[in-house]
Write a structure and sequence with these properties.
The complex is a heterotrimer of chains A (about 425), B (about 550) and C (about 350). With about 425 residues, chain A is α/β, with parallel strands linked by helices. Helix content of chain A is about 45%, strand content about 20%. In chain A, helix 1 packs parallel to helix 7 and helix 11 packs across helix 12. The chains are: A alpha/beta (about 425), B alpha/beta (about 550), C alpha/beta (about 350).
Chain lengths: ~425, ~550, ~350
């Protein structure tokens, strides 16, 4: 039944249906509404048995999840941005220990400058941690991905992070078809850990591994990620069969069959891009979109075949590696290796900058004309950049440029009025 | 459960890692000689019998005790316990009251009628023991244990020697004496009393004895030439005490002066008090520090009203008046005359100036060497003549009952070796468990249990025993004060303090064992062993 | 001395075992059937106090919980020397996650047990002093504040020994470490304000806080037992000398722990719900020199170029502890007799 729900609320409802046994909460925008809603459920008793623990930091949130998971409980937490960075040591640790924790990442920019709005810098910061990272395009998919995430995590004994755009999804109210408990239970069996702390069968978990075996341990973890590449489509199909919804899977191609130009992206921006593509298609351009759901493991073969016939690939991403360029684009380039397709990287929407359909359309048009630089920043205010660079060149004590930019913007606005 | 590779490990797998290879020194269990055992003239395994007593195993303790000394009830009263002087417990608080526990065990044995072990299988050898004092009794006991036949002869009407005729009943009740002597004679000792041996060679050959043990004691009181008027009553202490023991005490009057500074002097003075003397005065030429008598005996005597004239010698005795010369100690601590005199009223003078041995039975024998008034013996207690042994006060010794009992044991073993025609082998002596081997932290402070003393006023007038015994509770407590120097008493410290679990607790006789597969040689077990029963030795590489 | 008044049993209440005691009154460690939670073959240095302390505490916890125990371990010596692949020394279920998160991980384990209705299974978290007073402090305080059902044990050897003897917030003043070398006007660690974790724990009003040393096993085991009788957050701070880091002889480990208590430098006490309920009074008062001189980390305080002024300041710390907790020896310690 379709309900008008805030994204966070949809996630909370769905996570609750997954019967988590230990939920850790530490507030950080824009994740707060999720954990608040779960907290109510535990406190009122509608989610039981479940231990809801208000911890003192994200580091503790992930650590408590580690303990709970290692002791055989289904563990869940949610975070964003700085919170993810604060727990990053534990994030790596959870993956290293193979603990099937599920975490929602309400994607948000990373400071400084402090910024609470959406981009994907946080997710990219932990892409090598060993977690499976699934990106949701819509609130419906975000909700559905959580059900699949628990199944995936526990089947493979790997933690899974469901990435959903902060505010854009978490705070957006839209129609979501929530699953019922029986369906979730049918899809998601009770957690049966691969290893567990048990007085009747004692083991030592978390040994120190030296040079003699460390590489093998890492390689085995990599193989587990490759297993996930096989398994993700399987459970997505199963999910679709159960619900009728095409949520999950490795990739979501859209009008790519005959496309010369394919735009690749993660998350909610795919909606805007699809609108742009539809419009360009109306104008006769052969453009398509490739949404990547599974960023880690990266479905390199699926991406390769989806892009096989394109002569131009544009990667639009909400994060970038300073001094280098696109993060997703780098991965995509591995999939297009050997092809003659031109690859453009477009950094867009950092720190919550709106990504307008017309900007996307203009950018694609330029790309088709061959005018797009290989690394482009969408809607960059060149004037600000030039003025700040000039200021920095004039004096060593030019001040913090974030503040300078704000002052410049204010000045410009006043000048205009 | 399928374990994730390397990160998750099966328990206990580290036992594959033999950390013993790190070691450069290894701990080993040792038995060190406790200082009490070392000091005991009777060679008792004191720590050993205290160990049994600690757990309330009094009979086992007593049996361990009488392996070396068959007279614990007696020794528990008359021994001057050099063991306690040597006791390491003074490092914690006070010496263990070994003597009191010994007496408790001895009394308990009498009370329960425990018998000594049966005599050993008959060897067919016959031994004559001359003198039934502590040396003779000790020898007879050990000889019987070894299976030799024993004839014990004594010139007095009753057995016991100086135990009976030298030690007053208030220190050693006769019932106790009789009970412990009877236990020995019950082992099948042929006893002949009122029999004085005049010629040892004759006696030996007529009786067909394979060996002889001379334990005739030192029964002759030393006399010095003190000018005394005819009416003056002068008697030696040995005779005095002997007569008292025979219940025929001499009349000494109300004012008795005892001349001498040894334990016998004190015995004489205290006995005089009990016989009705109002003044019992000891005259001694040196001061209290130099007095050879045992301090606690002095303390008791003073408590009973005995007085002492320190730094005085008896110059002459006439007309119920003693003339004393005052002395002073020179730089070396020796007394020298001052030429000053003083007088002291006295009805009688008891001379307690030491004893001599009556060795007339050796007059016909040229082989046995007599020097300084005593019979010279080898470590086996054998004289220069084969088969003739001597011990106790008749041989060179400190002349205490305990030394005599020790001589008896040693002589018995010497005689046994002689009769079997084997070399006398003395057991190996372990290293001494000196105080620096102990970790006294572990011993809870617990002051010794003083034995109750009879009220002073009562004891001055009768011959009831002055010092009472310990109750069982007290004896147990006192036994548990033993530090068990140098000998494991199963405190589990080594087992507990090893960071590598490299001590195996076995229980039983072996108690513990080191697991050298894992012992890293840190030495904590040695450091924390309360009693010094472990030592580190270099690892042989 | 232990709170328990004992009859006189030759070695009183200080030795590990005693053949004269009834089996119930003996320490866990005296039993050949003890768990040996940490087994032989571990790679701790010779004379390691932490290996000893961990076995003491966990074996006692195993007895108190009837074997229903799960342990969480912070990174550090204890973790490294016990579980180098492919061997583990642990005989109990054991989880190591990170350096600074053991309290939180323990919270998670406890939550899992609660949610599964396994109230019989108890959780111990453990770390060295670095993992407790420094990097793990935040998660520990959080665990305390929530009153999670975890006994957290700090094995305090006063520094980062695993990484090569660096200073922690538990390193005492004047002590030499690799990051507080004996150079300059104030050789060794500076005289800071200290970070007294037992008192900080007490400030959380958690049900039980106690300190102990490896030198008094009966006391330590009793405290573990007591700790296990409570639900909620409990803290046990165990003093464990480190021969390597302190430059002490390997056989002095227990002796040093004893001296730390007998000098007053390490107060041994327990507190319930934020209130001190029991102190272990000093039995044989010792000057701090006696303790300090056995350790090379204090060697610069003695000898020709010694610093009696600094020794006096350390003595003042001990004296302040004695005054704060009332540790002065009892006038008459000879009271065992009354019960015998």
């Amino acid at each position: 039944m379709l309900r008008q729900l805030e994204g966070s609320k949809a996630i909370a409802e769905t996570v609750a249906l997954c019967r988590p046994e230990v939920v850790c909460a530490y507030p950080i925008s824009p994740q707060t509404h999720i954990i608040e809603a779960i907290g109510v459920k535990v406190k009122e008793g509608s989610l039981a048995p479940c231990e809801y623990i208000n911890v003192e930091s994200e580091f503790a949130a992930m650590s408590v999840s580690i303990g709970a998971s290692a002791a055989g409980a289904r563990a869940y937490t949610a975070t964003a941005s700085q919170g993810l960075l604060f727990m990053i040591e534990a994030v790596y640790n959870a993956a290293g220990l193979g603990l099937p924790i599920v975490m929602t990442l309400a994607n948000r920019a990373i400071g400084a400058p402090i910024n609470i709005w959406n981009d994907h810098s946080d997710a990219m910061a932990v892409r090598d941690s060993g977690w499976i990272q699934l990106f949701a395009e819509t609130n419906q998919e975000a909700a559905d991905l959580h059900v699949q995430a628990f199944r995936l995590a526990e089947e493979l004994s790997v933690p899974v992070m469901v990435c959903m755009d902060g505010f854009i999804l978490t705070h957006a109210v839209e129609g979501v078809d929530l699953m019922d408990q029986a369906t979730v239970d049918r899809f998601l069996p009770a957690y049966e850990p691969r290893q567990v702390l048990d007085p009747e069968d004692p083991v030592s978990i978390g040994a120190m591994v030296g040079p003699e075996a460390f590489e093998e341990v890492r390689y085995l973890a990599h193989l587990r990620q490759l297993d996930a590449l096989d398994y993700i489509p399987v459970i997505a199909e199963e999910f679709t069969a159960l619900t009728g919804r095409p949520s999950g899977g490795l990739i979501h191609p859209y009008r790519t069959e005959d496309a010369d130009t394919i735009v690749v992206a993660l998350g909610s921006v795919l909606g805007t891009i699809k609108d742009a593509v539809d419009h360009l298609r109306d104008n006769g351009e052969r453009v398509g979109v490739l949404g990547i759901t599974s960023f880690r493991p990266f479905p390199i073969e699926a991406v390769r075949s989806a892009l096989a016939n394109a002569s131009r690939v544009i990667v639009v991403e909400k994060a970038f590696s300073l001094g280098m360029g696109g993060v997703l684009a780098t991965d995509v380039s591995m999939a297009t290796l050997g092809s003659s397709a031109v690859l453009n990287t477009v950094i867009a929407g950092l720190g919550g900058r709106p990504i307008a359909q017309h900007s996307i359309e203009a950018m694609i048009a330029r790309a088709i004309r061959g005018e797009l630089e290989s690394l482009t920043f969408l809607d960059l205010d060149e004037g600000i950049i030039e003025r700040e660079r000039a200021r920095m060149a004039r004096t060593r004590r030019s001040g913090p440029f974030a503040e300078n930019v704000l002052r410049d913007l204010r000045q410009n606005r006043e000048d205009r009025s | 459960m399928e374990r994730p590779f390397a990160i998750t490990l099966d328990v206990g797998t580290s036992r594959a890692n033999h950390t013993g290879s790190w070691r450069v020194e290894r701990p080993v269990y040792v038995d060190r000689l406790p200082p009490c055992n070392d000091a005991c003239p009777a060679g008792e395994n004191i720590q050993g019998w205290l160990y049994e007593a600690e757990s309330g195993g009094y009979e086992a303790a007593w049996r361990k005790l009488v392996e070396n000394n068959p007279l614990p009830a007696i020794m528990g009263r008359v021994c001057f316990h050099p063991c306690e002087s040597a006791c390491n417990r003074v490092q914690v608080d006070e010496a263990v009251g070994i003597n009191a526990v010994e007496r408790f065990l001895g009394d308990t044995a009498i009370e329960h009628g425990w018998s000594l072990p049966p005599a050993g299988p008959d060897t067919g050898k016959r031994v004559l023991v001359v003198g039934a004092g502590p040396a003779g009794l000790g020898a007879a006991y050990h000889l019987r244990l070894l299976g030799h036949q024993v004839r014990l002869v004594d010139s007095s009407p009753k057995l016991g020697g100086m135990l009976r005729y030298g030690i007053p009943a208030y220190r050693l009740p006769r019932a106790i004496l009789d009970a412990e002597i009877a236990r020995i004679t019950d082992m099948g000792v042929e006893v002949i009393v009122n029999h004085t041996v005049h010629d040892i060679d004759v006696e030996r050959h007529e009786g067909g004895f394979d060996a002889v043990f001379l334990a005739v004691g030192a029964q002759l009181g030393k006399r010095v030439n003190i000018p005394a008027g005819d009416s003056s009553k002068v008697i030696d202490a040995v005779s005095f005490l002997h007569q008292v023991a025979d219940e025929d005490p001499p009349m000494l009057g109300r004012r008795v002066v005892v001349y001498g500074g040894g334990d016998t002097a004190l015995d004489a003075a205290r006995t005089a008090r009990r016989l009705g003397a109002t003044d019992a005065v000891i005259v001694y030429r040196r001061n209290r520090d130099k007095m050879p008598a045992h301090a606690e005996e002095v303390e008791q005597a003073l408590g009973e009203g005995v007085t002492v004239r320190w730094l005085s010698t008896v110059e002459r005795f006439e007309h119920e008046r003693l003339v004393l010369e005052k002395m002073r100690l020179n730089a070396d601590g020796f007394p020298e005359p001052t030429g000053e005199y003083e007088e002291l009223d006295a009805d009688s003078l008891v001379l307690a100036l030491g004893q001599d041995t009556d060795l007339s039975l050796l007059e016909g024998n040229d082989n046995v060497e007599v020097r300084d008034g005593v019979v010279q013996v080898a470590t086996t207690m054998m004289t220069n003549e084969g088969g003739v042994f001597a011990g106790g006060d008749a041989a060179p010794s400190d002349r205490t009952a305990t030394v005599a009992v020790g001589h008896g044991k040693r002589a018995a073993r010497g005689i046994d070796a002689y009769l079997r025609n084997v070399d006398f082998v003395s057991g190996d002596r372990h290293d001494l468990a000196t105080a620096d081997h102990l970790n006294t932290w572990y011993y809870a402070d617990a002051p010794r249990t003083e034995r109750p003393e009879l009220e002073r006023i009562r004891r001055q007038t009768n011959f009831e025993e002055v010092i009472g015994g310990l109750t069982e509770e007290n004896a147990l407590f006192e036994a548990r004060r033993c530090l068990s120097c140098g000998n494991c008493f199963e405190c589990d410290n080594c087992f507990g303090v090893c960071p590598d679990n490299a001590v195996i607790k076995l229980g039983g006789e072996v108690k513990y064992e080191f697991n050298y597969d894992f012992c890293k040689g840190c030495g904590i077990c040695v450091r924390e062993c309360p009693c010094g029963a472990i030592e580190m030795i270099p690892e042989l590489i | 001395m232990s709170e328990q008044r004992v009859h006189f049993y030759q070695v009183g209440s200080f030795a590990v075992g005693n053949r004269l005691l009834s089996a119930d009154d003996r320490t866990v460690q005296s039993s050949p059937h003890r768990t040996n939670s940490i087994d032989s073959g571990h790679r701790a240095c010779q004379g390691c106090g932490e290996a000893l302390g961990a076995r003491y505490a966990l074996d006692a916890a195993m007895r108190a919980t009837n074997g229903q125990l799960l342990a969480v371990n912070a990174t550090g010596c204890l973790e490294v020397f016990s579980t180098p692949y492919p061997e583990t020394s642990w005989r109990i279920p054991w989880l190591h996650s990170l350096f600074g998160n053991a309290p939180a991980v323990a919270t998670g384990v406890a939550a899992a047990m609660r949610v599964k209705g396994r109230s019989d299974v108890r959780v111990v978290g453990q770390a060295g002093d670095g993992g407790t007073v420094d990097i793990g402090f935040g998660t520990l305080s959080g665990m305390f504040e929530r009153n999670d059902d975890v006994l957290f044990i700090c094995y305090d050897n006063e520094g980062y020994m695993n990484t090569g003897v660096q200073r922690s917030a538990a390193t005492p003043p004047a002590a030499r470490t690799a990051t507080t070398d004996v150079v300059g006007a104030e050789p060794g660690n500076s005289f800071g304000q200290g970070k007294d974790l037992p008192r900080i724990a007490m400030a959380h009003d958690i049900p039980y806080v106690a300190t102990a040393t490896v030198a008094d096993l009966h006391d330590l085991e009793r405290k573990v037992e007591r700790a296990m009788s409570f639900r909620g957050a409990r803290y046990l701070h165990v003093f464990v000398p480190c021969p390597l880091g302190w430059g002490s002889a390997t056989n002095e480990t227990i002796h040093l722990a004893r001296l730390a208590k007998e000098t007053g430098l390490f107060p041994v006490f327990e507190a319930e719900h934020g209130v001190v309920t029991n102190v272990s009074r000093i039995r044989r008062l010792a000057p701090v020199e006696e303790y300090l001189k056995l350790q090379r980390r204090y060697a610069h305080l003695f000898g020709a170029k010694g610093r009696p002024d600094i020794v006096a300041r350390l003595q003042a710390i001990a004296d302040a502890n004695i005054a704060r907790y009332g540790l002065a020896p009892e006038r008459d310690e000879l009271d065992n007799r009354e019960d015998a």
